[in-house]
TrEMBL record:
GO terms for biological process: protein ubiquitination. It comes from Seminavis robusta. The lineage of its organism: Eukaryota, Sar, Stramenopiles, Ochrophyta, Bacillariophyta. This is Sel1 domain protein repeat-containing protein. It comes from the Eukaryota. CDD domains: RING-Ubox_WDSUB1-like.
Amino acid sequence: MSTNPPKKSPADDLICPISLELPWEPVMAEDGRVYERECIEEHIKKNHHNLTSPITREEMGTRLFPAIQHRNTIETLVESGVIDGDLADKWNEKVEQKKEMEKLLKKAEAGDGSAMYSAGIKYGSGLDGFKKDKKLAFQWHKKAHEVGDVRGNALMGWCYLHGTGVAKQHSLGLFYLIDAASQGSNFAAYDLGMAFDNGNYGFNVDKTESIRWLEKSLGNCPHMHLAVSGTNEARQKLDELKASAPASSATS
């Protein structure tokens, strides 16, 4: 008994063959296939010494061309309901995500310090549809600092200390980090506490100072932006330090 081939969906020729999703930023590669830009750029980066098409396995170049008509077709088919289900749901999530990105950046560009700080976080980690860009992350943290946001102050200092998105400047980074910790940034206080424990940033190992700053990071700081993982690490390290410290040097 013969069986009919599976019915072809309008989405079959539109999905990225790497992500298997509808590409938000479709580009045509030199193999003639359309991919999500981020996916094919990652493929090119990983295989640049011996670059072949991820589909045909034949040699290909590195040039990518925006596939504007491809994106327009996807948009039309999703909006009209011709493409539905999980593919459409994920596409619509990206649409909403894009709206939230634009809203946040609009507030940041209008001078909102909290939005500036958030933009820096999202660019730094590649969150919520923001493309990871450490230079842009630093620039937004710097802008947040300039309008008085202590969290931006802390992250700008951290970037200077690590050379993340900006040339490393140890003394400048330490100045801003200490200033932010003194103003109640629990992230900055945590980072100083760990630095004193490990002898980082040019500090001598000083368990008493480490305990002091870690306690501050876990206290009632007015600027709470330390990740939960950092809070847990600070609590664990503080317990270890207090357990090993002489009774006279341990702080309450």
